[in-house]
User: Which sequence fits this backbone?
């Protein structure tokens, strides 16, 4: 499994999508997002990474995704295949909130 | 500036704290979080990284932080110095939602 590097100088668009989910469906949602990434997203132009997290209380799933640029994300969103996967994930989650960010600072231990 | 590595095998606790903020105060909130990290958090035992993001619409600031373990986070939360910084950030933000996660999967381009 690869690792992901967070570097403010890379200039990526960061999409943090936070899903709210019934705890007993968290694994199911993770499986859909994992499959969606492998079968759809990861071959899209400009895709850099997806990082799938489950919250300790299992009420949330978060995808921390990096994309090369906003036009790459717009093209992905307009792709019917990508949309199928998002609809599937949205059906399992009770809600989700995608927010687009720029990484500005990275701090390590002092 | 260092970079941060996301690796599911590292076994860190990931704390994603999403702040909602008036867009014209986003820079002010970022400055407080940056100072809080450099002057307080980064010297705490178990601190691994903090990654500060501003949303494209400037309505959110997100801190993607890695800690070695939950007991390290609990000790930081019980530290009055850390609390001072959190209170300062909370005053600038209109709301914030800290969620604790485990990173389960990292995907790169196919």
Assistant:
């Amino acid at each position: 499994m690869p690792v992901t590097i967070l570097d403010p100088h890379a200039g990526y668009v960061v999409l943090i999508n936070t899903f709210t989910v019934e705890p007993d469906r968290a694994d199911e949602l993770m499986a859909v997002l994992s499959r969606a990434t492998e079968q759809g997203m990861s071959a899209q132009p400009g895709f850099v990474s997806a990082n799938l997290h489950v919250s300790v209380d299992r009420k949330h799933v978060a995808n921390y995704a990096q994309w090369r640029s906003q036009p790459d994300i717009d093209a992905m969103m307009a792709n019917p295949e990508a949309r199928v996967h998002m609809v599937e994930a949205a059906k399992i989650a009770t809600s989700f909130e995608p927010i687009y960010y720029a990484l500005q600072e990275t701090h390590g231990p002092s």
In short: The longest helix of chain B spans residues 26-39. The mean pLDDT of chain B is 94. The CA atoms of residues 3 and 47 of chain B lie 14 Å apart. The radius of gyration of chain B is 14 Å.
